[in-house]
Amino acid sequence: xxxxxxxxxxxxxxxxxxxxxxxxxxxxxxxxxxxxxxxxxxxxxxxxxxxxxxxxxxxxxxxxxxxxxxxxxxxxxxxxxxxxxxxxxxxxxxxxxxxxxxxxxxxxxxxxxxxxxxxxxxxxxxxxxxxxxxxxxxxxxxxxxxxxxxxxxxxxxxxxxxxxxxxxxxxxxxxxxxxxxxxxxxxxxxxxxxxxxxxxxxxxxxxxxxxxxxxxxxxxxxxxxxxxxxxxxxxxxx
Length: 238
What we know:
This protein has 7 helices and 7 strands. By secondary structure, the chain is an alpha/beta fold. The chain has a single domain, classed as Vaccinia Virus protein VP39 (Rossmann fold, 3-Layer(aba) Sandwich), CATH 3.40.50.150. The protein is globular and about 60 Å long.
């Protein structure tokens, strides 16, 4: 297995239109995450990366939505995703639309997202499936330098393992868009062979276990009950 962190730097596409059939990918991803966006509440939604900035999130009840990337047209905050300029536990939800696909340090990116998310904060992340038609195209030397074949592709199991280490609870994960050149992605194939979908998405929530002892509960745990007098004692008259 190749290491997740590599010294090479990646240049993320500025628009979905730069990807072949990119608008189909974007529309399909929006359809997949729309029900989950409706469940999110809070004050701040962070959309990390240029592709995330173009995702329609109007169905989300969070009104303050900020686009963050190192450069781009629809960016409000210019920053390195590996060093987000936000206080810890200040963001209610994060969207990573194929951000890890062009990240040199996916672990560092997820750790930074974990740092800025509030307890029980939401995370939506999407990427390309290595076991798909796009994954097969990545094996062809003539296409390795072309978008999207120059991106990094990780399996769902590997990404969920990363999230488990950060104590995220995965609520939903799936593959979709089996045929990249088809607007519907191939409904029949997506129904019966979803594992071959070119796109994959994960919806998770940050869980925090209380590690600080509660003094009152600790005191009650140490309190011993007095034995009942004569409850089990037998007395014989001489």
